[in-house]
Amino acid sequence: MHSSATLLIEVGGILLALALLGRAGRRVGLSPIPLYLLAGLAFGHGGLVPLSASEGFIEVGAEIGVVLLLVTLGLEYSASELVTNVRAAAPAGLVDALLNAIPGAVLALVLGWGPVGAVALAGVTWVSSSGVIAKTLADLGRLGNRETPTVLSVLVIEDLAMALYLPILTALLAGLGFAKGSVVLGIALATVAIVLVLALRFGNWITKLVSADDAEALLLGVLGLTLLVAGIASELQVSAAVGAFLVGIALSGEVAHSATALLSPLRDLFAAVFFVFFGLSTAPETIPPVLLPALGLAAVTMGTKVLTGMYAAKRAGIGSKGRLRAGLALMPRGEFSIVIAGLAVAAGVDAQLGALATAYVLITVVTGPLLARLSDLDRSKRPKRPTTGLFAKRQPDARPAGSTAPTPTPATEGI
Amino acid sequence: MSARVEQRALPGIGVCQDVVTRKGRRIGVLTHRDGHRELVVYDVDDPDAASDTIPLNSDEANALAELLGAPQLVRHLAELQQQVVGVLTEQLPILDGSRFAGRALGDTQARTRTGASIVAVLRQGEVIASPGPSFVFNPGDMMVVVGTREGIDGVAGILRGEED
């Protein structure tokens, strides 16, 4: 009885602390991700408040958090949307991968973390945060901008590339030899391909399977299917995250819409637990030694992201200001970088990688959205026009009183 | 004549459509997945950037669309009637015992045989615009037929089963 009381007190305390942090962060326009990471660093071993009873719960919760992050990400896209985007934005996606993965890989090799560490850190620096970027674009009123589709296309390609990258990383991390590794990898890639084809061809059928008119049955159906597929994918070394992402892709239409609404609160809860868990598993004293490399890496890869965005926007025929906006928007790294680092650390790659990834994500996710606003500065300095002057003091989120329109829902709001 | 609408898919968010006016201003509508819309006004100096975004709920969007669209439609119809002298619009019913009740529009071969077109069908207070050849008539439907006097009379004849 006693330990269950402690569990409730600890979990309750953590969630309450997160709520207060999140609110404070939103007030200054900060994504909650860095705050949750910091909270994780503050709790647990070597932190301010040691935890005892809730560690097991948080560990399982973190696992569920990753699965929910990925399934809701998958729900945002339809399979045909993915195919169209890959065709249109493949060159930009390739430039994105090369420019941003290489600096991470090089640094990992320099620090002596070996080839597997290099692949992991390459992933950490490669993937932008869809959640943070979509939220920033909505906050800055840029969803209508002509360069925004190019920014989103890069994110879509990254998300899809993760479906290939994560199984590769998982196979590498499992430390399998070349022969066995290629077999496992072959199985993994074949599974991903089969599920993608199934999603493209029979998505409607899969959607019907879980289709239900009442919310409870739909919630349990989608959650059950997702956890089941994620578990099986994990068993096949494909990584649970990819399994969940593919389930999200396969569901479409009204089911996807309702499922997103039902799963989002759960996602917000467990994703917060996931970020706390990652912070928990990083000892705070390991951060200062990696701070300098993290800063350098952040500076370099934020620069390469700007180049990526500028290249992608240029291909789409966007003017020079729009190109800069696209580049600056892509800088924040977030949930995926932490997922990758989490996998790597759990598999026993140098623990410093976790500390470096934490510092790196903290830097990019805080400075990225701030720097994205840079490209608006020249506009506010211009002499005011009647059209903008009336609304000059408007906050990005403010809407006229009495308006019943819902706020824009970015891809993963709240994360 | 008609303005060019540019459409951009926003994966995960929705779709944005915009129009560039004769004077070079860009104005657009952003439709989110959940159906709510935003009116987007683009910057004069930087036509890639939205200088203002106005969220609209469905009532507001409908009101705005009516303000912009309805007078246009009325004028367009009036122009059509003036322009094309000798072309008439008439409504012809599908009666209860009609040989075409329950059969497809294509079966009438109205356009091939008379030159007149069935441009819409009125059914229980609803307008079904541009019905295709596979459209099946119900008894009580009202066809809107456009054509010359002879053409429309021809269609009426087909309906009565005179020309066969």
TrEMBL record, chain A:
This is Cation:proton antiporter. Residues 377-415 are annotated as: Disordered. Its main location: membrane. It comes from the Bacteria. Residues 398-415 have a biased composition (Low complexity). GO terms for biological process: proton transmembrane transport. Belongs to the monovalent cation:proton antiporter 2 (CPA2) transporter (TC 2.A.37) family. GO terms for cellular component: membrane. The keyword Transmembrane applies. It comes from Cryptosporangium phraense.
From TrEMBL, chain B:
Residues 75-161 form the RCK C-terminal domain. Pfam families: KhtT_N, TrkA_C. It comes from the Bacteria. One of its GO terms (molecular function) is monoatomic cation transmembrane transporter activity. GO terms for biological process: potassium ion transport. PROSITE patterns: RCK_C. Signal peptide: none annotated. This is Cation:proton antiporter regulatory subunit. It comes from Cryptosporangium phraense.
